Amino acid sequence: MSLLKIRNKIQSIPIIQGGMGVGVSLERLAGAVAKCGGVGSISTADCGYREPDFDKAPEEANLRALKNEIKEANRLSEGHGLIAVNAMVATRQYAEAVKTAVSSGIDAVISGAGLPLELPEYVPEGSALIAPIVSSGRTIKLIARKWERSYKRYPDFVVLEGPKAGGHLGFKEEDLLSGSCPDVFDILKNVIDELKPFVQAAGREIPVFLAGGIWSKEDIQKALSKGAEGVQMATRFIATKECDASTAFKKILINSKKEDVKIIHSPVGMPGRAIETNLIKRLETEKRIPPTKCSRCIKTCNVTDVPFCITHALIEAVKGNIDEGLFFTGSNIDKLTEIVSTKDLIASLGY
Q1: Is residue 21 located within the same domain as residue 97?
Q2: Which CATH number fits the domain that encloses residue 212?
Q3: What is the pLDDT of residues 137-167, one digit of tens each?
Q4: Smaller CB count within 10 Å for the chain: N or C?
């Protein structure tokens, strides 16, 4: 098995497990994926929701939990693969979460849900790999140019999320609804082309990992044949024994069909792909479900007019509460049929 080297970090399989919050991808899933030789990702989004003081002091609870999760994920990985954090630019704790992850020995910081223009400021050179999540060649050009000019830094790798991904999406809602988004392999070619001058300036490769609708061994091989160095997969890792979400959460997704999936308006300010549960149906008729408390998670959130509390909805989802939960998913929900081990899942992909 060939090794994939990114700067000074080595992984043995070309798979990143996508970060899923709140609480879907924490230490158990990330550690299990890394143990198999991939990149296991911990979502920093309100990762302290299990802490006893989360309701009173969410910021402190999140950072404390993040340190513990990174430590435990590294233990579970048994020294294999890489442990990353997925950090959302849209969150108020973005900078603090990234800095905490770096000081805790994280291998990589993967950052999206906004433009991570200042990410190098929080990650000293040589401490951890830095990677933006993008959805177009224009976006990676903008980010890479900013990093080059302001920090004399370049991405260590890039995650390209296509329109079939789950959760928050970097495409216009009308294009997602009409199915008129560009083909992900055309976007991949554009991203690779836009990266060429930065690859030359950096004097090293900048691998691109393709995400969104990746499901099978054949999907991975196609991505590699089109110029990607690897893939990122998220939804498929939900139905694993090690996924940190409740069994009820996993069964709700397993029992859902393609026609149950909707494009929603997220309080983050981006469209998202999620299961049409009772929460979504209520919002369609009531338009707003006023929050009863605030964990101060999103920078742009105004608790007096936000349509619903995304933190509460995601926490209820990870517990399996179909009435109040927001269940993000990718487009391949029909193919999610059983709960397997992470090891068996990765073996089915040819690794």
Answers
A1: yes
A2: 3.20.20.70
A3: 999 999 999 999 999 999 999 999 999 998 8
A4: N
Same domain for 49 and 103, yes or no, is yes
**Same domain assignment for residues 185 and 239:** yes
Same domain, 168 and 181: yes
Looking at the fold, whether 205 and 310 belong to one and the same domain comes out as no
Three-state SS for 263? strand
Contact 73, 31 (CB under 8 A): yes
Q: What is the pLDDT of residues 196-210, one digit of tens each?
A: 999 999 999 999 999
Listed range (7-21, 53-67, 337-351) with the worst mean pLDDT: 7-21
Q: Is the peptide bond before 22 cis (omega within 30 degrees of 0)?
A: yes
How high is the pLDDT of residue 1?
43
Number of folded domains that form the chain: 2
**Which residues make Cβ contacts (< 8 Å) with residue 261, sequence separation at least 6?**
273, 274, 275, 276, 329, 331, 333
Q: What is the C-alpha separation between 134 and 185, in angstroms, rounded?
A: 14
Closest CA to 157 of 106, 195, 104, 100: 195
pLDDT for 283: 85
> Helices marked H in the chain — which ranges?
27-35, 58-77, 94-103, 119-122, 137-151, 173-178, 184-202, 217-225, 235-238, 247-254, 278-286, 310-319, 342-348
- Residue 256: CB atoms within 10 A of its CB come to 18
**237/280 same-domain check:** no
Helix pair angle (58-77, 94-103), 10° resolution: 40
159 and 298 in a single domain? The answer is: no
Segment 209-231 mean pLDDT: 95
Residue 239 amino acid letter: A
Question: Distance (Å, rounded) from C-alpha 256 to C-alpha 262?
Answer: 12
Flag whether pLDDT at 116 surpasses 60.
yes
Query: Which among 45, 144, 120 is positioned nearest to 87, based on CA atoms?
Result: 45
∠127-60-288 over CA atoms, to 5°? Answer: 110
The answer, as to whether pTM is greater than 0.90, is yes
> Are 156 and 290 members of one domain?
no
Domain that holds residue 212: 4-245+337-348
